[in-house]
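Practice problem 4.
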């Protein structure tokens, strides 16, 4: 079991290198935007990308997840049919949807409350959606085939093109907000052109209606569920804009993006975990293995939370030439970053609880779960933003993510019960509340200047207390000891 978990870890590392490198490059756009765009302009970018996130769900209608399910089992159709059917389905519908959105761009611009000059932003966003949606199945095929390296390379190419063109269009040519979307459009189109040759051996002029019907049956529940999920992630921006202004949304967005570290971990893990649990679902020790993985990943997420929280002020105040990494105009929102990261810890649990939903084909419960969570998000945003401002929006995100994870736990345990390692999870939680709580209080409530040595002590205390508490199991200690011995022997061999 530990060897299989090790393989999952190895693939996660590959995806992680790609994700961290890519997100770091993307993250560079945050200080870039804060120094080249006014908070109001950045607020418009955040608002439009939140709309794109919503429309992505309708464009994809669950076809990526359905492909994972049926391509992994091969229960209907040939290998090429399992790829070509969902791929051509998305090609046809994406072109139709984007064309319609382009034709109605003037009406969409008016509804969004933008000026006539913003119409071109809507058109570019429509075709970004088209290209990104068509790329979903080719990207999923790379993951299912364990081609993590190729997946990483293509993703990185996309990000490098996007970041480079952002800098050229905004800093050199002065395109402003239009440069953001033009860069995204070119990057998305380029990525699709790269993916098509990589998927050529899976592609055939074939379309199975029987398979397509099953794909829709499995995938359609992801539409309302996906809308609710995106609402969990981005509905706070439109509500915040409604209750405040574009500048406040810009400050919120910049700091929200700084909470990206836990989201990076979850995204990276999901890339490797979804094909992993589908391929290992029939193993006799599958449930025990899934429980062990949950313990490891939960502890890792909380440890990273402590590290980022302790050093967040140091990170934003890094000097880049004559500018700060994040412009001081945005610093008033720093206190929301740890709250956002905790919210993403619950998103991590949603990923960990996903095997039961997939394996037992219970996707019909997803709209109910995420719908309740989305409703909680909307209600708490309207309740808390007028009182606490951007912190209210962050707290609403935390509450709704927790509701979503709770619903996923209930359904997953009902149909695919797993005996999670409750004692170890409690140990992790208690130690985190002690170490993380102290750090957050000193930094954001007491306003204490924490020295570098004290920061290292706070960070190091968490893993040390885990070891002292007897957290490690005997087989884990033996496995680590054996692995360390092999590594030590390998070093001696080459000396």
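Answer key:
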């Amino acid at each position: 079991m530990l060897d299989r978990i090790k393989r999952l870890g190895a693939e996660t590392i590959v995806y992680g290198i790609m994700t961290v490198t890519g997100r770091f490059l993307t993250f560079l756009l945050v200080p870039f935007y804060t120094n080249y765009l006014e908070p109001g302009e950045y607020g418009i970018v955040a608002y439009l990308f939140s709309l794109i996130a919503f429309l992505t769900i309708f464009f994809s209608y669950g076809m990526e997840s359905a492909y994972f399910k049926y391509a992994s089992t091969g229960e209907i159709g040939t290998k090429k049919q399992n790829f070509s059917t969902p791929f051509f389905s998305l090609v046809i519908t994406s072109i139709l949807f984007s064309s319609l959105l382009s034709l109605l761009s003037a009406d969409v611009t008016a509804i969004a409350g933008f000026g006539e000059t913003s119409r071109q932003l809507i058109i570019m966003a429509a075709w970004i959606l088209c290209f990104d949606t068509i790329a979903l199945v080719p990207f999923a095929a790379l993951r299912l085939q364990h081609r993590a390296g190729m997946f990483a390379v293509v993703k990185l190419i996309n990000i490098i093109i996007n970041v480079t063109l952002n800098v050229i269009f905004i800093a050199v040519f002065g395109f402003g907000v239009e440069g953001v979307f033009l860069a995204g459009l070119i990057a998305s189109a380029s990525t699709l052109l790269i993916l098509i040759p990589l998927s050529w051996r899976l592609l055939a002029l074939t379309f199975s209606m029987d398979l397509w019907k099953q794909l829709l049956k499995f995938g359609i529940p992801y539409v309302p569920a996906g809308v609710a999920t995106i609402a969990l992630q981005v509905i706070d921006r439109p509500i915040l804009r409604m209750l405040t202004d574009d500048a406040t949304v810009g400050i919120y967005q910049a700091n929200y993006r700084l909470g990206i570290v836990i989201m990076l971990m979850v995204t990276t893990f999901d890339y490797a975990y979804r094909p992993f649990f589908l391929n290992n679902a029939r193993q006799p020790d599958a449930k025990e293995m899934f429980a062990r993985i949950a313990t490891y990943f939960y502890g890792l997420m909380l440890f990273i939370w402590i590290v980022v929280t302790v050093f967040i002020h140091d990170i934003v105040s890094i000097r880049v030439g004559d500018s700060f990494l994040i412009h001081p105009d945005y610093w008033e929102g720093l206190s929301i970053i740890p709250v956002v990261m905790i919210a993403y810890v619950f998103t991590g649990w949603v990923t960990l609880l996903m095997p039961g939903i997939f394996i037992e084909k219970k996707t019909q419960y997803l709209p109910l779960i995420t719908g309740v969570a989305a409703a909680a998000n909307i209600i708490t945003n309207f309740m808390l933003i007028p009182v606490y401002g951007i912190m209210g929006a962050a707290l609403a995100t935390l509450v709704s993510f927790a509701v979503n994870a709770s619903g996923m736990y209930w359904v997953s345990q009902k149909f695919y019960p797993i005996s999670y390692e409750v004692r170890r999870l409690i140990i992790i939680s208690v130690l985190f509340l002690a170490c993380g709580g102290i750090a957050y209080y000193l930094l954001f409530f007491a306003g204490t200047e924490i020295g570098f040595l004290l920061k290292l002590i706070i960070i190091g205390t968490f893993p040390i207390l885990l070891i002292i508490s007897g957290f490690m199991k005997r087989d884990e200690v033996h496995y680590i000891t054996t692995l360390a011995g092999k590594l030590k022997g390998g070093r001696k061999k080459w000396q």
